[in-house]
Design brief:
about 50 residues, alpha+beta, two-stranded parallel sheet, 2 helices
């Protein structure tokens, strides 16, 4: 049977459109966490996704 446990940690962040919530979401993303994010505003993916 395959291992069903996640290989990366999961973070749930609310209020990720600004302030502490945004900082936490960015920090977890840098640390390769899987994220579930709650935020207001259409530009949240631009804020959280790093531009390479």
């Amino acid at each position: 049977m395959p291992d069903l446990l996640p290989t990366r940690p999961l973070a749930v962040v609310t209020g990720a459109s600004s302030g502490i919530g945004l900082e936490l979401a960015q920090r977890f993303a840098r640390e390769s966490f899987d994220l579930i994010v709650s935020a207001e505003g259409p530009d949240i993916t631009v804020i959280l996704w790093p531009q390479h």
